[in-house]
Amino acid sequence: MSALSTPVLGQYVPGDSILHRLDPRTKILFIFTYMLIVFLANNGLTYGLLILVTGIGVFLSGVPLRLILRGLKPVFILILFTAGLHVLFTKGGEVLLSLGPLTIEEKGLAQAGWISLRFLLLVVTGMLLTLTTSSIDLTDGMERLLSPFRRIGVPAHELALMMSISLRFIPTLWEETDKIIKAQKARGADFESGSIIRRLKSYIPVLIPLFVSAFRRAEELALAMEARGYRGGEGRTRLRKLSFTWHDGMAFILLLLIILGLLWLRNQ
Amino acid sequence: MIQLKGVGFRYPSIKETGAEERVLSNIDLTVDQGEYLAVMGPNGSGKSTMARLFNGLLLPTEGEITVDGLNPRKLEEVWEIRRRVGMVFQNPDNQIVATTVLDDIAFGLENRGVSRDEMVERIQDAIARVGLTGLEKAAPHHLSGGQKQRLAIAGILAMRPSVIIFDEATSMLDPVGRREVIAAMKTLHQEGTTVIHITHSADEALHAERLIVMVEGQIQREGTPLQIFSKPEKLIEDALEVPLFIDLRERLRRQGMSLSQHSANSEELVEELWGLLSKG
Which residues lie in coiled coils (chain B) (predicted)? Predict the structure, then answer.
């Protein structure tokens, strides 16, 4: 196994759940709107509703919970960090604890709780998108959602192509990084000992060959694309087709209900 | 049919030195439809540059080139030339654009604006022809080198080309991958596609009907592979390796053995040697 074979946060899990079958455009729109309306929540009821919706989403995705929790591990550190900052520096309300110059106050604690919860909701829903949508569907959906904005100069096709080429080459470059690391180790390079600075520095002889080779690859790929008649997005047709089904309609109705629910509950 | 008349090529000069390197000079060549042509030559002899002239990736700085009567200098015609003249490159990884086999084969068709229904049909056909059936959804990095090159061939076949150029397409493959690609070349040739194979391997060049040897940007020799390898001039001997059985045969001849120069592969040479042995 390669030294760099750790799974990535929210990597696609193939499946056939309702969430998997939704049109990627629906999922992108739903989740982006959802991420915005998370900020409408301001009390227990509204947060309750959001937790319920996210929970149902996780359930419907059919992705094992432990996989999601494992993916969240690095995020927890970030959440603890922000929560910690809020606990210490947001002031107001009753003083709960004081240690010399540091005080923990009621508002700080509450704020830390809400912010962590919000953060968690955002990350989990974001993960649901990438867990249930293959990268190629994702780029395809993005391209189609952006294409109406082409007229005002948004390079929808180019962005999507850039994304899909990067996705295509990530495993290739990964393999290459591994190979270079091994080659440098064979020449006596040391990546494991010394201070952090030293260890970071020791990766320079890995990055330079990697960049040089990436540029060479890019040049050859451009040539190959040209040889296959690539000349930008004009007049291109597509193999992949996307179609909305009644599931997608349901998703949008659900989204509308969530928004209305939030607006009503936040004033209760 | 590809026709070159007095073609020369220089890369644009690099400012500091002002030196203009002349890569090709005075090339006259006709590649007929359905031909199986091999091109050999040492590194820097201009083989790949010539190949890039064939499909309009580069334009000649001197002379004229036409592909089925089309002129690559005309912008409308160069795209048609690139459809007709497909190219498989050396590095299997750097010519695959998409994240699955299906999507990659579709790339060229999408560029041409082929309708979706026709695309599906042509892709199925291309996959079957290169023997990648069952791998439609596979990601490129899960394919072997030979499979990647066959994927590249499928992407070209879907465009219904009349010529396919293999620009050292076997040089980065293991023996199994090489055999796969050579087998694909032979099938293509039998089906009527023009095959141009640029290679360093004399054994691979033996499969071709005609061999061109390039040295320093010029065509040095031209003929059937057997003719060329059997009468190696000093210059050519330096520039390329000769297939083992021909090398052996010529050495034995020089030693005074009465071998003919007709053997076309090692089996025939062995056959002849046996014949000599039984005669005593």
Answer: none
Which site among B55, B111, B157 would you substitute to test the A interface, given the most A Cβ atoms closer than 10 Å to its Cβ?
Answer: B111
Taking residues A52-79, report their average pLDDT.
88
Tell me what pLDDT residue A15 has: 85
Q: Are residues B177 and B265 in the same domain?
A: no
Q: What number is the average pLDDT over the span A150-169?
A: 89
Helix, coil or strand: residue B262 = coil
CB-based contact (8 Å) between B59 and chain A?
no
- B168 in catalytic set: yes
pLDDT for residue A110: 87
In this predicted complex, what is the ipTM?
0.86
* Cα(A152)–Cα(B147) distance, integer angstroms: 42
Q: Would B37 be classed as within a structural domain?
A: yes
Model's pTM, two decimal places?
0.81
Closest residue in A to B154 (Cα–Cα): A228
**Cβ contacts from A onto B, under 8 A:** 92
Q: Are residues B133 and B225 in the same domain?
A: yes
| Cβ neighbours of A246 (radius 10 Å) | 7
DSSP structure class, residue B108? H
B91 touches chain A (CB under 8 A): yes
Backbone angles phi, psi at A94, to 5 degrees: -70, 145
Residue A122, min C-alpha distance to chain B (Å) = 28
Mean pLDDT computed over B81-92: 94
Range of the domain at B190: 2-232
Q: How is B14-43 classified by DSSP, letter by letter?
A: PTTT----EEEEEEEEEE-TT-EEEEE--T
Domain count within chain B = 2
Reported as a pLDDT band with limits 50, 70 and 90, residue B44 is confident
- B244-271 pLDDT tens trace: 888 888 888 888 888 887 788 888 889 8
Nearest CA-CA distance, residue B81 and chain A, Å: 9
Q: Tell me if A229 and B115 make a contact (CB, 8 A cut-off).
A: no
Residue B237 lies in a domain: no
Using CB atoms, pick whichever of B98, B113, B139 lies closest to residue A235. Answer: B113
Number of H helices, E strands in chain B: 11, 9
Tokens of B202: 């004399």
For residues B34 and B68, membership in a common domain is answered with: yes
